[in-house]
Write a structure and sequence with these properties.
five-stranded parallel β-sheet, about 425 residues
Length: about 425
């Protein structure tokens, strides 16, 4: 009799399974379904990129607004019948999604329990709310705006691939200034990849030291098409750029947030080309006008200085310069005569004074005293005898009189 194989106990958890004691596949599917059904429904926002309707069910593919992430969604006809307008590819929606696991095939799908298109009014309200928040941060302040160079060496251009906006900018800029150079980056300017592509091109051109100004251009479009240029990430990337930025998005009526943060807003790509480079014809005309004004000013200055020279030369001092010299010659002669007369008078007075002083000096001189009969008696050592006691009898004496010297000997006078 054959023995019945022993029945093994099924592991309670996935961690307890082994190659010798695995779970049945149905059990794993049941547990996955039970776990997934516990997940709550979540509202998400995205863009419909695929839409297939089959009988009473529609299969959608919704892609994230900013990232390369998509999800397949199944929506029953009862949900779509509640919409006022049918869904279309490219529409932006918010949907309530609930994960669902199909056990027989092991397929995970998302069930759309409710779906609502995002209207233009909702988008505008979001943009306006973001505009106010960024303005409060000061990202739109005028003092943050950088001036554009008068004549850029090289212009960075971010635009769509082979777009009319690119052709308009290149053609009109070349017409205005034929020597202009461009560094073009052709990227997606609408759709889910637009924000990432434009930011990447912007940062690449901003890091190039030869690029003096960056133009971001797109040739208009619907409100939905221009949404990437109101994305917060792109607006902040433009605010952080060192190179001046010109926004040329859409037409005059279009105003995405990039226009507010850019250093210059151009109404159209053609307007951007006119504002980033000067018109060579206009500049040549200005040079000619400046040259004419300069010549006129120089000629006016020369004429004015000629008139001044003529006026100076017509003055008597320059018309007859010798008259000024003759007048000064007479003044010098007159002053010379007065000076000579004054000097002669002073010399005469001082001469008489010198004569008078000389007579006084002579009257007081020793010689005049000798002339009056006086004599000077000296001893042999030339000392003058002032007392008879200095010359006893027989003392040799030298006597000076007015006519000369002679010697004598002292004798006592009779009593």
């Amino acid at each position: 009799m054959q023995e019945t194989p022993e029945r093994k106990t099924i592991p309670a958890t996935a961690a307890e399974t082994t190659p010798e004691n695995p779970w049945p596949l149905a059990l794993l599917s049941q547990k996955l379904k039970s776990h997934i059904e516990k997940a709550p429904a979540a509202w998400v926002e995205g863009q419909i990129i695929e839409l297939n309707k089959r009988a009473n069910v529609s299969y959608l593919t919704i892609r994230d607004i900013d990232d390369e992430v998509s999800l397949s969604v199944t929506v029953w006809g009862s949900v779509l019948s509640q919409l006022a307008t049918p869904l279309e590819r490219g529409a932006r929606v918010v949907a309530s999604l609930k994960p669902d696991f199909w056990m027989k095939t092991g397929r995970l799908s998302m069930q759309g329990r409710d779906i609502r298109p995002v209207g233009l009014g909702d988008l505008l309200a979001r943009i306006e709310q973001l505009r106010q928040a960024l303005a409060a941060e000061g990202l739109f302040n005028a003092d943050r705006k950088k001036p554009l160079p008068l004549l850029p060496h090289r212009i960075g251009l971010i635009t769509g691939r082979n777009s009319d906006a690119m052709k308009d900018v290149l053609r009109n800029a070349a017409l205005r200034w034929p020597a202009v150079e461009f560094e073009v980056r052709e990227v997606a300017v609408q759709g889910v990849n637009a924000v990432t592509a434009v930011i990447g091109a912007l940062r690449e051109l901003d890091a190039d030291p030869q690029v003096d100004v960056i133009v971001i251009a797109r040739g208009g479009g619907s409100m939905e098409d221009l949404l990437p240029f109101s994305h917060e990430s792109l607006v902040r990337a433009a605010a952080d750029a060192v190179t001046p930025i010109v926004s040329a998005i859409g037409h005059e009526a279009d105003r995405p947030l990039l226009d507010d943060v850019a250093d210059l807003r151009a109404s159209t790509p053609t307007d951007a080309a006119k504002r980033i480079v000067p018109d060579v014809t206009e500049e040549m005309r200005r040079v000619d006008q400046a040259r004419l004004q300069l010549n006129r000013r120089v000629n006016q200055l020369l004429d004015r200085e000629r008139d001044r020279l003529a006026q100076l030369r017509s003055r008597p001092a320059l018309a007859n310069p010798e008259s000024m010299l003759l007048a000064r010659h007479d003044d010098v002669a007159r002053l010379g005569g007065r000076a000579l007369t004054a000097v002669r008078g002073q010399v005469g007075r001082h001469t008489d004074q010198v004569k008078h002083l000389r007579a006084q000096v002579r009257a007081l001189s020793p010689q005049k005293t000798l002339d009056r009969g006086y004599a000077v008696v000296q001893l042999e050592d030339r000392s003058i005898v002032r007392d008879p006691a200095q010359a006893p009898d027989g003392t040799p004496l030298k006597i000076r009189v007015a006519g000369g010297d002679f010697t004598a000997a002292a004798t006592s006078a009779p009593q």
